[in-house]
Amino acid sequence: MMMDEIRSLLLVSLILLLVVNGTVGSRKSGKSSSSSVFSLFNLKEKSRFWSEAVIRGDFDDLETSSPSEKGVYNYTKAGNIANYLNLMEVDSMYLPVPVNFIFIGFEGNGNQEFKLHREELERWFTKIDHIFAHTRVTQIGEPITPLYKISTDKMQHHHLPIISHINYNFSVHAIQMGEKVTSVFERAINVLAHKDDVSGDRDDADSFWQVDVDMMDVLFTSLVEYLQLEDAYNIFILNPRRDSRRAKYGYRRGLSESEITLLKEDKSLQSKILQSRSIPGSVLALDNIKKPLYGKHPMAKFAWTIAEETDTVEWYNICLDALMNVEKLYQGKNTAEIIQNKVLQLLNGKNEDMKLLLERGLKSGDFNDHHAECLTDTWIGRNRWAFIDLTAGPFSWGPAVGGEGVRTELSLPNVGKTIGAVEEISEDEAEDRLQDAIQEKFAVFGDKDHHAIDILLAEIDIYELFAFKHCKGRKVKLSLCEELDERMRDLKAELQSFEGEEYDETHRRKAIDALKRMENWNLFSDTREEFQNYTVARDTFLAHLGATLWGSVRHIISPSVADGAFHYYEKISYQLFFITQEKVGHIKQLPVDLKAFQDGLSSLLIPSQKVMFSPHMLSLSEDPALAMAFSVARRAAAVPLLLVNGTYRKTIRSYLDSSILQYQLQRLNNHGSLKGSHAHSRSTLEVPIFWFIHTDPLLVDKHFQAKALSDMVIVVQSESSSWESHLQCNGKSLLWDLRRPIKPALAAVSEHLAGLLPLHFVYSHAHETAIEDWVWSVGCNPFSITSQGWHISKFQSDTIARSYIIITLEESIKLVNSAMQLLLWEHTTEKTFKHFQSQERELVNKYNYVVSLWRRISTIAGELRYVDAMRLLDTLEEATKGFVDQVNTTISLLHPIHCTKERKVHVEFDVTTIPAILIVLGVLYFVLKPRRPKPKIN
Length: 938
Fold this sequence. Notes:
By secondary structure, this protein is an alpha/beta fold. Helix content is 42%, strand content 16%.
């Protein structure tokens, strides 16, 4: 028995010795592929817009009839599965966005008779960034008083990258309208303009006129519909001739401050309006006719179209007839009658906010909370159009003191101050300027004697500079320029006379150089060069105009959104919690226009969504937990104010700290007291809105009336109807009506739903954070400061839909890239080839299906059919999940193969191997050799 144990121990020692002297070979790892740029659209020149190379080729074209040695070789040589299938990570995807820039008054009949040429427009507008990424703005902090600069949090965690994988590809189509369209808008401005100040008969050149923007809305909308431009975003640039009788004008919705004062003081006028039984229909009624300008938007980087007069003559005649009727309506009427007509129009119009405000004022006779809106020269319409009027204004708005990106009187390009300031001087002015230039030039010579060649060269310099400034490119040629042309010929002959041998080499060289210089001149010719050297003034104007239009693209067409995951839900359930200090008997007794608020909330939904409302009334006096949450969150702060007139004021503000209030309300929600019936539904999103009604002035986070948080919206309402804010408009402080916070509430809810931000915010790549630009803070929407309206524009509803689409696309890209990483790490070996072949077809098909959905969504979104695109989002989510599951299934199928594959043991021999073997053999011989049997002695 002992002998057997010794033999076993020696065998184990032998095996261990062999293992120590040998090494086990390890499996070689495959080559890893670096992340490559995957572009959904091929944007290179002279190639198709969509690159079919994105989709994996047909499987049948790649699959061999039998698993040959070549197939195994290609599989193992690829290094990993991703390389073998030619699958790459997604770096960027492009959404096409069609944009029309429509120029009115640039055909030579507008202000300063400025004419825009195609080549110069293309030269400047192709410099605009046509491709840039969708961006997100991190959580916005409170303004830093007293400068009111918005701070953002750069350190917080982001669900998706701040600079998105999704890029916008803008196709710009410039359309120049003819003289008839220009004349219609000039006529409309003259007919629809009324004095801003109706308190006196002052009619000086400095007085402002207001143009009814609701009437202009009818004109712009009818022109877009007539030319069938609804399938693109339309930015109108107006350059109408300036009427000397209405030198300064702007656009406004509603009544001016002086008109409100007159209406407030004239009780008989109020009675007439209330007693008026016949509310007129739309004063400016236009027939709905259509004549498309183009069949389909030219999806190119830049395209140019001139609208012929025959294209718009029908629209021109209809508009002139309608404007003539409007002019007859106002003809011979005094100020009170004009105000009466305007109020009746507003009561019958589409502006619900104006209608509610006027009805309340007329019933109570109190118009103290009725404030005039700002005069502006830009406007964002209800549909997919906005306009800039370069002749109107200038105006200013933004933070009263400090802040950045404020709108000033120099923010927009000015035709009169650039083009008009340097062109078309008179004959007398030209002669005076030429004499001044001659005296200035020859004053340098003094009394010293100079050679004739130097005097000739000085004269040539004067004429060259003068001709470039005042002769080249004029519409009406100066007679002085013709005289200078004759003189230049004489100078050329005189210079040629210096080429003789009797003059020294220096003088001859000066004459030859001057003659060469004059050979290329075309300063006095009437012929137009194909590529004209435009003046500095025109280039400055066009550069400024290009920057302004680029700003319109960044702020209203494709604005930055808040950072967050904003998903599409079939149903939106608004949980409305109205919290008062004392108990209110019925919801109708609340000082809230519930129907207007619900209508505003419904406008935030896209057509395929359904809305539900669950209003609740809570009282702080009957709910101790809620009262405690309110009391803990209520704080006070000393806020320094610098008003627009330079007055310094320190105010004590009472406010609710949103972070504390959110925490306290979340605790109540965890106990179930604030949960709705759809809190755990996957198809329904619950939006809790806590509306605090307080007597004393109360804000959120010192400066806001409403605030969007991650899981709720907080709104505060108090009794003050004229709260002086830190914002100003045209030198006057903007007053907030704290009794009606519907506008800020809708802005906060839209940020909570889809990430929409105020119009003056945009992400800056240079600053790596949000910056402000207040130029486009206009329009009667919840995101502007110059109007009190809260109607969602088509620009904003498209942004909401696009936000849902982009979130789904990015999450799909994120999942596909994570699956690609797994395929990149999965090495290809000969042993796994047959097992992989069983999964290859399904893997490729599911990948191609995901890519085809990306393509379909991008194409449909490029046609602005966002509702149709959103119907594919659920399908895309399922297809993406299917591809990821297929990748995981494939890899899990291959892993058992790796665990059971054969291993080879490689033994390395060195100088110690042979002695070790001899020793072991000797020990074995000693142990195992046969022994003599011992005699048994009893």
